[in-house]
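Input structure tokens:
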């Protein structure tokens, strides 16, 4: 999803109380709130595929799996973000109501307008979460998944996966074919070609 700024400066507590009364979701960064806009159908399908698989894999483990409505706080005072998928296996998050604060896995589905932000500034913020072990970025326009994993020395390493690969998420002990993430996903180019073909038929 994409965030657009709404220039209202609030304290973290004011934001949490205010957002509960809003019809749409807002992220919170340095006193500012940012309205969350909708994503594409492939974006939603990818997030749903992975979240469903994680939910099934982690059933009975005590871990929580949330999708886009699951808010993550970098700290109790923010920033607050809405990842596409988030998993927390920490006891301190089991009773959380407003936001998770101790995730082990965060997933963002990329779009052209957010990719640089998700790889850069947002990842910098997420790295401040001490419990975070993996940060996954999934391309919504082609089969490609990047998993950033923190090693024993505290350094984040990139583990890229492409078509035909088996993905390994060590934070939740989950191996799966990358095709699982893209099940029933229709890429944008296919949509455009379909529209062009339809226009061509109308002209005949």
């Amino acid at each position: 999803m994409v965030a657009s700024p709404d220039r209202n400066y609030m304290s973290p507590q004011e934001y949490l109380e205010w957002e509960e009364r809003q019809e749409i979701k807002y992220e919170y960064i340095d006193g500012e709130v940012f309205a969350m806009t909708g994503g594409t159908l492939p974006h939603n399908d990818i997030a749903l595929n992975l979240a469903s698989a994680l939910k099934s894999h982690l059933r009975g483990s005590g871990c929580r799996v949330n999708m886009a409505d699951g808010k993550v706080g970098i700290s109790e005072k923010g920033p607050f973000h809405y990842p596409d998928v988030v998993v927390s296996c920490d006891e301190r998050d089991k009773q959380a109501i407003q936001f998770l604060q101790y995730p082990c896995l965060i997933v963002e589905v990329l779009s052209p307008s957010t990719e640089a932000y998700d790889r850069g500034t947002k990842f910098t913020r997420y790295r401040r979460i001490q419990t975070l072990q993996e940060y996954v970025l999934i391309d919504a326009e082609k089969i490609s998944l990047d998993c950033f994993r923190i090693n024993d020395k505290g350094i984040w390493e990139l583990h890229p996966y492409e078509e035909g690969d088996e993905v390994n998420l060590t934070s939740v002990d989950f191996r799966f074919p990358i095709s699982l993430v893209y099940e029933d996903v229709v890429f944008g180019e296919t949509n455009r070609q379909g529209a062009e073909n339809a226009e061509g038929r109308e002209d005949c």
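The first strand starts at residue 2 and ends at 6. The mean pLDDT is 90.
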